[in-house]
Amino acid sequence: MKAIIGGTGVDTLDGLSLKRSMVQTRYGEVELFITDQLVFLPRHGSSHSLPPHLINYRANVAALKDLGVDEAIGIYAVGSISQALSPGEIGIVSDFVDCTGGSREHTFFNGGASGVRHCAMDDVFDASLRERMNILAPHIKDAGVYVCTNGPRLETKAEIRLYGRLGCDVVGMTLATEVSLLKEAGIRCLALAYSINWAAGVGQANVSFIGDAETAVLKEEMTQLCCKTLLSCSN
Ligand code: HPA
Predict the structure, then answer these.
(1) Which residues contact 72 (CB under 8 A, 6 or more apart)?
(2) Distance from the CA of 111 to the CA of which of 11, 19, 96, 159 falls in 20 to 30 A?
(3) Atom 6 of ligand 1 has which residue's CA nearest to it?
(4) What is the pLDDT of residues 140-160, one digit of tens each?
(5) Cα–Cα nearest to 5, from 35, 37, 33
């Protein structure tokens, strides 16, 4: 089973007949949408009611694991810090920096009965998924390094200057927590970022976002690419 995890602007998956299901996990209940080969999980809920710091990431990943998901592609709205990705563009994330501050439930291994484990993160994203996506979209950009903030507020200009100097290319609020748990669960993953704004202080006087029509076009392009990549031959 394969999964697409959608975020801001990608709360639904059109064009497939999906069955809405509620999955119970030991961390809580999860709403997701299922076909025979694919699961669609809107991480903010299907009506986008959960802010990034309140998403139950452990329940979401546990639900995917319970459904037998072995590969997942997450779609992440980001702000652009460097020129790697401009607003309106799509790219594959290469790595991440976690600046959420540790207040989220971000691990399955809390000691006691759950054990102690230090999950390796040197190869964060799955090479086979990346190769398969590159074959389908040879000109897709490399979105570079994603810095994950806690949110829900946007960053100050000084914070974005700092993240830029640290080598971060795009900023968002969800990827680090989600991907860490996917790795802990042994689910191979890839992250597709789409930029909806220049981050604070980059280029423009104030942060402004791309429009709904442009987002809808990107959504269609990304969801189709994710479906084709996941359903293309894998080991
Ligand atoms: N900052 C943090 N998260 C985001 C942004 C941003 O500028 N744009 C989209 N998600």
Answers:
(1) 2, 3, 4, 5, 64, 182, 187, 188, 189, 190
(2) 96
(3) 79
(4) 999 999 999 999 999 999 999
(5) 33
Average pLDDT over every residue of 194-213: 93
Q: How far is the CA of 199 from the centre of ligand 1 (A)?
A: 7
In this structure, the residue with its CA closest to atom 4 of ligand 1 is 172
Atom 7 of ligand 1, residue of closest alpha carbon = 79
**Ligand 1: distance of its center to the CA of 208 in Å?**
11
**In terms of pTM, does the model score above 0.70?**
yes
Residue range of the domain that includes 195 = 2-231
Sequence-distant (6+) residues with CB within 8 A of 193 are: 76, 77, 78, 85, 90, 91, 92, 93, 143, 146, 170, 172
Q: Report the CATH number at residue 218.
A: 3.40.50.1580
Cα dihedral 177, 219, 2, 97, rounded to 10, equals -20
* Ligand 1 binding pocket mutation candidate from 162, 196, 204, 208 (most atoms within 8 A of CB): 196
Total count of domains within the chain: 1
**Ligand 1 pocket, Cβ-based, cut-off 6 angstroms:** 77-79, 149, 154-155, 171-173, 196-197, 199
How many residues are given for the chain? 235
Which of 155, 157, 171, 207 to mutate to test ligand 1, by most ligand atoms within 8 A of the CB atom? Answer: 171
Structure tokens that stand for 176 in this block: 């680090």
